[in-house]
């Protein structure tokens, strides 16, 4: 029977072997080295796991969505060998069905969620005193197997490392310790205006039928209207997010007439009324 130290060594050995047979892009500068990895080419999860298992002092991770079992286990193993591990999550995802927040907490890892009205949308980790892992990659199975994702592994670059560290510490300082069951999403009906207004400022899941999809050609912005009147809910997809839908082959106008669930922060705007700003396609799910 292998003890915990031997298991960690075995995992690290397997990851190192994988790194020798996969293709990455590597460059060196006077400040350090850069490696680029893509989910569609050599994969990403093994890169993150390799750096976690090699950590000797500290790991600080700010991850929007965290459902990966292998990476959660890697952090727990690091904690057990006395590496300081801190994890920042977005509160809307920390209580998700497949979130690893509870597993990390139950195994002694320090997990906090950001306070504030916006999303904690970072996807980066700092390892020891000189390694930055950053890119589009959420720590999820779908990011590894289904999506087109990337990470950069930066080794060295002290000024850049300090900038990332300051950002992590800024959020960590004001974040709160996550507790299991906290931050569960309230489900609301898109037609219950009173309940919607009562929950303004909260992260919610709203279910309803999209009556009309409007479009502003000038700003390249879509508006999903759930009511004929001005007091109803509108989901806004700004130009900055439209490309994400297009890359996934999603025609935003196809939501018209469909029953959907929309997740996000509910805003009661003094001029525009009840809104949810949709920044990711995953915020909208069609209900069969």
Helix content: 25-40%
CATH architecture label of the largest domain: 2-Layer Sandwich
Spatial sequence of strands, sheet with the most strands:
1-2-8-7-6-3-4-5-9
Tell the overall outline.
Answer: globular
Q: What percentage of the residues does DSSP assign to strands (E)?
A: 25-35%
Do you know the CATH topology of the largest domain?
A: Endonuclease, Chain A
Structural class: alpha+beta
Return the domain count. 2
Q: Give the C-alpha Rg.
A: 21 Å
CATH level 4 superfamily of the largest domain: Endonuclease Chain A
User: Number of helical runs?
Assistant: 9
**Between the first and last Cα atoms, what is the distance in angstroms?**
48 Å
Which regions are unreliable across 5 or more consecutive residues at pLDDT < 50?
14-21
- The CATH class name of the largest domain reads Alpha Beta
Q: Count the strands?
A: 17
Largest sheet: 9 strands, mixed
Summarize the SSE layout with pairings.
Layout: H1 4-21, E1 25-28, E2 32-38, H2 45-54, E3 58-63, H3 69-80, E4 84-89, H4 91-94, H5 101-106, E5 110-113, E6 123-127, E7 131-135, H6 141-145, E8 150-156, H7 158-174, E9 176-177, E10 186-189, H8 193-198, E11 203-209, E12 212-216, E13 221-225, E14 234-237, H9 239-247, E15 259-269, E16 273-277, E17 284-286
Task: Tell me briefly what this model is.
With 288 residues, the chain is α+β, with helices and mostly antiparallel strands. The protein has two domains: 4-177, Endonuclease, Chain A (2-Layer Sandwich); 186-286, Nucleic acid-binding proteins (OB fold (Dihydrolipoamide Acetyltransferase, E2P)), CATH 2.40.50.
């Amino acid at each position: 029977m292998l003890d915990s130290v031997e298991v960690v060594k075995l995992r690290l050995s397997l990851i190192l072997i994988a790194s020798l047979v996969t293709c990455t892009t590597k460059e060196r500068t006077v400040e350090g080295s850069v490696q680029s990895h893509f989910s569609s080419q050599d994969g990403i999860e093994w890169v993150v796991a390799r750096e976690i298992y090699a950590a000797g002092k500290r790991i600080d991770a700010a991850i929007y969505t965290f459902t990966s079992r292998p990476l959660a286990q890697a952090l727990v193993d690091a904690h057990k060998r006395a590496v300081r591990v801190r994890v920042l999550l977005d509160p809307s995802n920390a209580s998700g069905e497949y979130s690893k927040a509870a597993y990390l907490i139950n195994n002694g890892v320090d997990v906090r969620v950001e306070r504030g009205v916006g999303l904690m949308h970072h996807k980066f980790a700092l390892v020891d005193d000189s390694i930055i892992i950053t890119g589009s990659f959420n720590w999820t199975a779908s990011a590894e197997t289904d999506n087109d994702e990337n990470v950069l592994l930066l080794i060295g670059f002290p000024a850049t490392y300090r900038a990332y560290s300051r950002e992590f510490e800024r959020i960590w300082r004001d974040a709160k310790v996550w507790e299991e069951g906290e931050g569960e999403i309230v489900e609301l009906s898109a037609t219950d205006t009173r309940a919607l207004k009562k929950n303004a400022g909260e992260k919610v899941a709203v279910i309803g039928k999209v009556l009309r999809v409007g479009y502003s050609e000038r700003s390249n912005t879509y508006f999903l209207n759930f009511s004929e009147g001005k007091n109803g809910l509108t989901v806004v997809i700004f130009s900055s997010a439209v490309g994400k839908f297009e890359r996934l082959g999603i025609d935003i106008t196809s939501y018209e007439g469909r029953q959907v669930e929309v997740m996000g922060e509910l805003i009661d705007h003094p001029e525009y009324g009840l809104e949810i700003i949709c920044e990711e396609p995953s915020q909208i799910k069609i209900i069969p």
